[in-house]
Amino acid sequence: LPVEIHPSAGTDASMATHIENICQRNYVKYQLTCFTFSFPQLGTVLVQGYYRIDADLVLPIVRSNIEKQCDLIAKGMADKDDVVAHSLSNFQKKFSYFVKNIEMMDTLFEASFSPLTAGGKPWSKCGLSNRYLQLIQSKPQRLYNKNTEQVYNLPQGGSFKLWGGRVCPVEGCGFELSLFVVGAGKDQRSYPLCPNCYNNPRPEWGPAPSSKGLMTECPHADFHPVVAKLTLCDDEETNGVFILDPGSAPNNWRLVSTRSNFMLTFPSDVVHKLTVLSETDPACENHHLLQVEFHKGKAPPPLPSDTVTHKCYVLEDDAMQGIMEAKSGSNRPFGARRG
């Protein structure tokens, strides 16, 4: 009762009816022995689903505002017809928005009640609950937190790999990072993926790629901190950037475009390791210095063959230009058969 009284979400006459309704619908269960409520899975999933689509449908704000408007009508401070018209318009807009985004509720119900959920395998850690998220591999693939009933959509059209326990550096996130792998074989490309940031992109990271259909590019915007840390230079042809492929180590070092299947590869018998440094070209602030470590005696000309470490701006360096191969990678979905 105090939960309804404090935000003025109910009246003495309506509170008992509210409680009776949610009990009858099995949203909550009343524990007579200890005078408390427990929350069955149905009630929890409904609250999570409504909250994901429109938090006002769960929080007491809307109901509280209506109670206040009724109070103003009773005091002669508001016109009844105006209040009714405003309320109906507000709920019509909310209903239309809810219907438009109903797939968010469907996804949550499917993940919560589908028997496939039991077959989901522990994947990466949630930054909010510090529990492992389950990777549901049935289409569409997604991550599911069985402790909070939260579902995290994933980009479709690729496969997923763990990334050595790395954690998203975005303040307030802390989710374990994975790799989103596009294509197959030697031409595959991998991009960093934070499930929380993918589902909750921020405008300061730049335009987020479309989540509709199959994705063949980086799932994050180019100014997301994880992408920015891997960025070597701009890809002017696609308005993207070239990043160090985080899945290319240690035997197939390559740079990949975030917005196309274009890649730059380096011979594995020559290059031992690549590292993007924070220093940038004075003439182009988004062209980062690249540290190259060569296998012993394999440094390309015009460098001395015994050079071990070389720092350069790769687009302007003769030695790296001589061994670098530009090619278009594969967009074939992981596991797809060739026609």
Question: How does this structure look, described?
Answer:
By secondary structure, this protein is α+β, with helices and mostly antiparallel strands. Helices cover 27% and strands 27% of the residues. A 5-stranded antiparallel sheet has the order 10-11-12-13-17. The chain has a 4-stranded antiparallel sheet with strand order 3-4-5-6. The model is unreliable at 332-339 (pLDDT under 50).
Task: Give the arrangement of secondary structure elements.
Layout (H helix, E strand, L loop, with lengths): L1 H4 L6 H13 L4 E3 L4 E3 L2 H13 L7 H14 L5 H21 L2 H11 L7 E5 L6 E5 L5 E4 L4 E4 L5 E9 L8 E7 L6 E5 L1 H5 L25 H6 E5 L4 E5 L9 E4 L4 E4 L5 E11 L2 E11 L14 E4 L5 H6 L1 E4 L11
Antiparallel strand pairs: 1-2, 3-4, 4-5, 5-6, 7-8, 8-9, 10-11, 11-12, 12-13, 13-17, 14-15, 15-16
In a few lines, what is going on in this structure?
This protein is of the alpha+beta class and 339 residues long.
Catalogue the unreliable spans.
332-339
Main sheet specs: 5 strands, antiparallel
Give the DSSP E fraction (strand runs of 2 or more residues).
25-35%
Which structural category fits the helices and strands?
A: alpha+beta
Strand order of the largest sheet: 10-11-12-13-17
What is the helix tally?
9
Please estimate the helix content.
Answer: 25-40%
Gap from first CA to last CA: 64 Å
Spell out the helices and strands N to C.
HHEEHHHHEEEEEEEHHEEEEEEEHE
The beta-strand count equals 17
Write down the oligomeric state: single chain
Integer average pLDDT: 85
Basic shape: elongated
Radius of gyration: 27 Å
